[in-house]
Structures are given as structure tokens and as C-alpha cells.
Write a structure and sequence with these properties.
Blueprint (H helix, E strand, L loop, with lengths): L7 H6 L2 H10 L24 E5 L7 E6 L5 E5 L10 H8 L3 E4 L18 E4 L2 E5 L5 E8 L4 E7 H6 L2 E5 L4 E4 L2 E2 L13 E7 L4 E6 L11 H10 L2 E7 L7 E3 L2 E2 L14 E5 L1
Antiparallel strand pairs: 1-2, 2-13, 3-17, 4-15, 4-17, 5-6, 7-8, 7-9, 10-11, 10-14, 12-13, 12-14, 15-16
């Protein structure tokens, strides 16, 4: 049912209520907001180093970037917000970043969006660059002034009071306060290219990308993402935009293999390492 193809086959054997019950049991649980005080980001190891780890498994190729100093992690936005997005390589050149992964959601009708129009909320360096109108609160994946990765659903007033310096919107949250969201099934989103960000209790940031929709790497489930992040000590983890958007720029090159036949996609927001 998650692929949108051949859904009629399930309806041969189950009624709509039974199908919905199965789908609901396969979803990531909603765990609430993360607790920033559980992370020791300010007292973390001041080593500014990064480490790229191959986390490939049977069925997919993946890469995990460890960033020891969370203060280096920020959100960058396309220079042409409201018009067109940028590619990861362009963002690296614009900002001087040593690493870039794709970030939050954007308007993408039929997969043909140009990355210029974010959705949810977009905050960079303390400035709200975009927010959906007509809503009172937002799902955020962001960094606060203490360099803590904050996951949660907050009003604009709360976001300002918490000192959120950088943020995007996406989901689901896969680990919150050390608790995994997926305990049954695989998360319900099928197999696809994935991007995620997490943080350990000592403040280390984890950036994960997994290739998909290609020979040698079909993709990963949300549970695969959750499990890899837990293996490397993540205490909070959020799923970011995936699919053809999934990209990792590091050490002056694109490390992974984006699934689009055109290569990197244009996107409005990125997590970067300065």
C-alpha cells in the first residue's frame, strides 16, 4: 500500500478497516517533543573533527557523517528562496561548508518542484526565512543556541523563547529522548533513499544518507534508519526529506549517488557543517 502500486491486491483479501488497522500498526509512533536538557552539547568534546563511516548493508549503500562539535552544524537556504532551490554543491560554495545534506520539505507537485518553495518553517541563523501561513504551530527539526538538536511541535512564540537558531520541517521523528518510534513493522513508508539527522547525548551530530532506487542499493525503511542511528548512539533522530532529494556533499565532492537521472535536485534548505 505504501508504494501506491497494485493496491487493489490487498483489497481482494481485506476490507478498508482491516487495511487501515494494518497500516496504522506499521507507522512510527508519535513520541512528543525532545528534552534539550538531556543533551550535553555545550560540554561536548571540543574536537572539531568529522568522520565519514560506511554503513552499507544488504540491500543498500549508506554513509554516516559524525560531527564532533555540534556548533558547526547549521541550516542554509537557497539564495533564491521563493524562486528556485540550489544544489548541495552550490550551497557548499555559497557558505564555505565542508559538508552538506538536504533538509526540509518543499512544494513538490508530482515530483517536479524546483525547490524554491519550502513548507512548514525555515529558520537560518536566527532568522525566520519562511513559515506556513494560517497555522499556529510547526513541526521543527532544529538547533538551539546551546547547539542541541531540538525535535518537536511548537508555536512561533515558543520557538522564539527557546532560542531556536536553525530549523526545518519534516518527519517523522524516529528516536526521541532515547526512545525508538518504530517498534512494530518497518515504519510504513516503504523502501527508498533516506536522509536523517540525529544527536548523541554527548552532543555529537550524526548525519545519515542512504542511496536507493538504483542497482546495488534499493533503499532503506524508516526502521533501518532508526536502527543505524541507535547503533551509533543517537538519542534524538529525525527523518529528513528523502527520495531523489537525498544527497551528501563532503570533502569537495558528492559522496552518495542521488537517485534522480538528472543528478542532484534543487532544494530550499540544507543542514551544513561549517
Amino acid at each position: 500500500m505504501t508504494t501506491m502500486n497494485h493496491q487493489y491486491l490487498a483489497k481482494w483479501f481485506f476490507d478498508d478497516a482491516e487495511i487501515q488497522k494494518i497500516l496504522d500498526s506499521n507507522k512510527a509512533a508519535v513520541l512528543g517533543n525532545s528534552n534539550p536538557s538531556s543533551i550535553s552539547a555545550l560540554s561536548t568534546n571540543k574536537n572539531n573533527g568529522t568522520e565519514l563511516i560506511d554503513v552499507s548493508q544488504n540491500g543498500f549503500k549508506g554513509y554516516l557523517l559524525k560531527v564532533n562539535n555540534p556548533g558547526r552544524v547549521k541550516v542554509a537556504a537557497t539564495r533564491y528562496l521563493g524562486t528556485i532551490g540550489e544544489k548541495a554543491e552550490d550551497i557548499a560554495k555559497d557558505t564555505g561548508a565542508v559538508a552538506v545534506i538536504n533538509g526540509g520539505m518543499f512544494n513538490d507537485p508530482q515530483g517536479n518542484g524546483n525547490g524554491g518553495h519550502p513548507q512548514g518553517i525555515l529558520i537560518s541563523d536566527g532568522k525566520i526565512l519562511y513559515k506556513d501561513s494560517g497555522v499556529s504551530s510547526y513541526d521543527i527539526i532544529g538547533m538551539d543556541q546551546s547547539n542541541v538538536l531540538v525535535l518537536g511541535h511548537y508555536t512561533l512564540t515558543q520557538i522564539k523563547q527557546m532560542g531556536i537558531r536553525d530549523a526545518v520541517t519534516f518527519g517523522p521523528f524516529l528516536v526521541v529522548n532515547g526512545k525508538p518510534a518504530i517498534t512494530h513493522g518497518d515504519g510504513g513508508w516503504g523502501i527508498a533513499p533516506r536522509t536523517a539527522i540525529g544527536q548523541t547525548r554527548d552532543g555529537t551530530i550524526l548525519m545519515l544518507v542512504i542511496d536507493g532506487r538504483q542497482v546495488g542499493s534499493l533503499g532503506a525503511t524508516l526502521k533501518d534508519v532508526q536502527n543505524i542511528m541507535l547503533e551509533y548512539g543517537a538519542y534524538n533522530v529525525a527523518n529528513l526529506d528523502g527520495g531523489a532529494s537525498t544527497v551528501l556533499y563532503y570533502d569537495n565532492q558528492i559522496v552518495n549517488h542521488p537517485s534522480s537521472q538528472y543528478g542532484e535536485r534543487h532544494a530550499p534548505s540544507f543542514f551544513i557543517v561549517k
